[in-house]
Design brief:
Chain lengths: ~160, ~775
């Protein structure tokens, strides 16, 4: 079937079986391989995307659920050649190692900061506890999200 | 986006260059290749732990629409054997099934759906044999043999290191302790499961993109197993989405190449799902470890005995080498006059175990550092004081009779720990009483040898090119599996050539473009390649300065300096862009290569040539001390790590941000190993197949970690560094084990320390520390 939705700010239509998983639609049909798959059962968060601004697991969603929705993947986060503040902080604070959890982790953080612009370290840990990282030990990730939240809050005041 | 105008400098904390592509989702991992609308390949696995293959029924699978071919061992022209030391593992089973994950038939199909349907329709006729799943049972002469052609039955490899007169020494001891420790399998659980993509090109070359730590060794293994010309196999190794040792050895490579040569002109993709990764991927070896240690009446560490049993599963993989490293490290960084250490690597019908960060040492150190606490307590000494008293200094003879030669910072690490604010805070943490909680503090020393040992050449070849764009391109033949060595390569070359990051370029490992460098493993990646790269970059620098000096007819090339993007004549200020200079050079003049072979020990603590081949002894070690503060819930038995500090001696630090990533990441994996990660295998059958049954540490399970460093110069290291990738993995389990024992007043000998085990240990009627 044809499914139309907004992807990273642009309207798209894909012709796929309605039961195809969103992670496969993104990676195979749209060549957006920034969305990762690491468990296929909603336990690791690597496939996180933003649907209507909220973090969702694309391995548990079917293509038909995208209909008329606004979707952001990691490829759509930076704008105008500038990294999103969360991306920038991940680079600067050493929150990236192998990088396979990174897209999902960043999008989970973006969702958090939208709901809670100045979270505590504990709130950050809670919010990304569904995103597994095997490399970092999380401390740099928490630091990066804290730094991004402060930077974004300062940006808004100005 | 992260352009910086200042030249790269050794020792500065700059963000790794690969992070930008990774946060943008642009970095292409092996799993991300869908080029040329690939076919999908997958394997039918045996599903039973031990048996004799009678027949493979593929007819029904071939009728599934979209199936391209079904291949079996009959389609393999080569040796059909792979393995790093013993080539004992078939690409596709031809006679015997030795574990549930053994691949029997390979299916290639147009879609994933067709592939899955076809795999379900393959029927295997296997005569079931009794399975061997217990380590000691496997060693019983009456047990079924897993490899009939192996002369030592189910004993893959064993070794003994002996020093002094152990039995007599124990009689001289006033204090003796002993215990059996049981360490579980650990799953690597890299987020990128085993993945690759391959195509047979028109010229007969198989191009293979794989998530691997060992592209050059893979090339040889694939060629041999499938009967291909070595130079008709090309392996490309992108950044791995995690590896930790689990991609040190063939996973998808031979299967993909086999599929590709049977589907000419079509690309083929294989990507194991998480369940398949649990069933077929290598694990950290399960181990049973016995220790006995004794001290004299005055509290001097006098005698040590250990017996180490590693379950290597169905195949050698790297099981013999893992055992040897455990054997070598079993005496720790201590002066012990009398020791006897025996190690056994045992075949079973369990899942295959292999390399995993730490490589046999987390198991022995997990036990040894708890025995040290037990002995210190028996001798009436504090854990820190006891270790300071016995820790080696450079020039000492270590526990296995080898001279400590390289830079040795274990004493300095202990000093740094006890003088730190974190250590005082940990003591204050312990002193504070909270209802229904018990708090404890524990420490553990660590040491970790670097490289391949005395026989297998630990060699890397570096290549660097001044491109006509004026950029310097580093051809890095050693994989970056996430640890950041690629960024460090650019830093090293940039530092020598006085260039900034935008003027550096990188080619990742590719057997066609980069030179052989060995594996990304053994804490040797940056050490060995870095040394080679220093030589290559210095040679290229010299050539460029000489060329510019001659062109400008200046009396001495020392008057010429490389600056970002240019060369400059200092006395005159005259300058030439590197892009222009490069155009005046022949292509071969713009390239420099160099080789480095790591130094080896000439000492012979053991005559057994097999043990030397398997790596004993090493000559350079990293060291450290870990301290953990835990809180035990007396109602639930839950253990939480609240405080953590690691002091490490990994030589000079090239990039503080990267070493911190290594140490913190290792601590998190170690916390999982100590408290929550348990691969469960019952009679050879994997029971933990996903992240809801195998629980990885999440952000709530890992505390803030304090890391500190003792920056001793390692003379042989690139800019004085030593390996940092593994040493952090050896400390958390014993530090946490000691902290839990400190908290509850009882020691637990079975890991991980699940709430059930902790509650049971708090029950005074429970007996622990026994064999079995």
């Amino acid at each position: 079937m044809n499914i139309s939705f907004h992807l990273n700010g642009r309207p798209v239509t894909v012709r796929v079986p309605s039961g195809k998983r969103v992670v496969d639609v993104l990676r195979q049909d749209l060549n957006l391989t920034g969305t990762k798959e690491a468990c296929g059962s909603g336990e690791c968060g690597a496939c996180t995307i933003l649907v209507e601004g909220r973090a969702r697991l694309s391995c548990l969603m079917l293509a038909v659920q995208l209909k008329e929705r606004h979707v952001v993947t990691i490829e759509g986060l930076a704008s105008g050649g500038l990294l999103h503040p969360v991306q920038e902080a991940f680079v600067e604070y050493g929150a990236v190692q192998c990088g396979f959890c990174t897209p999902g982790m960043i999008l989970a953080a973006v969702d958090l900061l939208k709901r809670n612009p100045l979270p505590s370290g504990e709130e950050i840990r809670e919010a990304v506890s569904g995103n597994l990282c095997r490399c970092t030990g999380y401390a740099r990730i928490v630091d990066a999200i804290l730094a991004a939240s402060r930077r974004m809050a300062r940006g808004k005041k100005r | 986006m992260m352009a910086s105008d200042s030249p790269l400098e050794i020792g500065s904390a700059f963000p790794r260059q690969d992070a930008v592509a990774k946060v943008l989702g642009r970095e292409k991992f092996a799993a991300d290749y869908y080029d040329q609308n690939p076919l999908w390949a997958g394997v039918k696995r045996a599903g039973i732990p031990h048996g004799r293959l009678k027949a493979i029924h593929t007819e029904a699978a071939l009728t599934v629409p979209g199936v391209v071919c079904v291949l079996t061992h009959r389609d393999i022209r080569g040796s059909n054997r792979q393995g790093v030391v013993r080539k004992d593992q078939p690409v596709l089973v031809d006679s015997k099934v030795r574990h549930c994950g053994d691949p029997v038939a390979l299916v290639v199909a147009e879609t994933k759906e067709a592939l899955e349907r076809a795999l379900r329709r393959i029927a295997l006729d296997i005569k079931v044999l009794p399975a061997v799943s217990d380590i000691l049972e496997a060693l019983d002469a009456k047990s079924p043999r897993i490899h009939e052609d192996h002369e030592n039955g189910n004993l893959l490899l064993h070794g003994t290191l002996e020093k002094g007169r152990v039995e007599q020494a124990f009689q001289e001891c006033a204090h003796r302790v002993e215990a059996w420790f049981h360490l579980p399998w650990q799953e690597h659980a890299y987020l990128e499961t085993e993945a690759g993509w391959a195509v047979l090109q028109k010229d007969g070359e198989v191009t293979l993109v794989a998530s691997t730590q060992t592209p050059f060794r893979d090339r040889a293994e694939v060629a041999d197993a499938l009967g291909l010309d070595l130079h008709k196999v090309r392996i490309v190794a992108p950044f791995c989405g995690g590896a930790f040792g689990g991609k040190d050895g063939i996973t998808v490579q031979s299967l993909l190449a086999l599929a590709a040569i049977h589907c000419p002109g079509r690309a083929v993709k294989m990507w194991w799902d998480r369940e398949e990764s649990f069933i077929a991927g290598a694990k950290r070896h399960r181990a049973m470890i016995y220790y006995r240690a004794g001290a004299t009446a005055s509290g001097v560490l006098h005698a040590l005995e250990a017996k180490l049993y590693y379950d290597t599963g169905a195949y050698d993989h790297l099981g013999g080498v893992v055992m040897a490293l455990g054997l070598e490290h079993a005496g720790g960084p201590y002066r012990i006059p009398h020791s006897r250490i025996q190690a056994f690597s045992v075949y079973t019908n369990n899942p295959v175990s292999g390399a995993f960060r730490g490589f046999g040492v987390p198991q022995v150190n997990g036990a040894l550092e708890q025995i040290m606490d037990m002995l210190a307590e028996a001798a009436g000494q504090a854990p820190v004081a006891f270790r300071r008293r016995h820790a080696v200094r450079r020039g000492d003879i270590n526990a296995i009779g080898v001279t400590v030669q390289g830079s040795t910072g274990i004493q300095a690490c202990l000093d740094t720990l006890v003088e730190s604010a974190s250590w005082k805070a940990m003591k204050a943490f312990k002193a504070r009483e909270i209802p229904f909680k018990r708090r404890g503090v524990g420490i553990a020393c660590v040491m970790h040898g670097m490289g391949y040992g005395p026989v297998v050449p630990d060699v890397a070849h570096a290549k660097i090119e001044l491109q006509t764009s004026g950029q310097f391109c580093v051809f890095c033949g050693v994989v970056d599996m996430g640890q950041g060595n690629a960024a460090t390569c650019l830093q090293i070359a940039g530092h020598i050539l006085n260039q900034d990051m935008p003027r550096m370029a990188l080619v990742l490992p590719d057997t066609q473009k980069t030179l052989p460098c060995g594996s990304s493993s053994a804490s040797r990646t940056t050490y060995t390649y870095g040394n080679a790269l220093i030589a290559a970059a210095c040679a290229l620098k010299k050539r460029i300065l000489q060329y510019a000096g001659e062109l400008w007819m200046v009396p001495d090339e020392k008057e010429v300096l490389l600056v970002p993007g240019a060369v400059r004549h200092l006395p005159s200020g005259r300058e030439m862009a590197l892009a222009d200079l490069a155009k005046g050079l022949n292509p071969s003049e713009r390239v420099a290569t160099a080789r480095f072979r790591a130094p080896v020990s000439r000492e012979m603590p053991v005559k057994d040539p097999a043990l030397r081949l398997h790596g004993i002894p090493h000559v350079i070690f990293s060291y450290g001390v870990h301290a953990a503060g835990v809180e035990v819930d007396t109602l639930t038995g839950q253990v939480q790590v609240k405080k953590y500090m690691a002091v490490s001696d990994c030589g000079r630090i090239l990039n503080p941000q990267l070493i911190r990533q290594q140490i913190e990441g290792a601590i998190a994996q170690g916390i999982g190993y100590a408290l929550q990660e348990a691969v469960i295998v019952e009679r050879g059958v994997m029971k933990t197949k996903d992240f809801s049954t195998y629980i990885l540490p999440c952000a709530l399970d890992v505390p803030e970690m304090e890391t500190a460093y003792v920056e001793l110069e390692e003379d042989s290291g690139p800019f004085g560094m030593k390996g940092a990738g593994e040493v952090g993995m050896d400390g958390p389990l014993p530090a946490i084990g000691n902290a839990v024992a400190d908290a509850i007043g009882a020691r637990i000998f079975h890991y991980p320390l699940t709430p059930e085990r902790v509650l049971a240990a708090m029950d005074p009627n429970e007996k622990t520390g026994q064999k079995g």
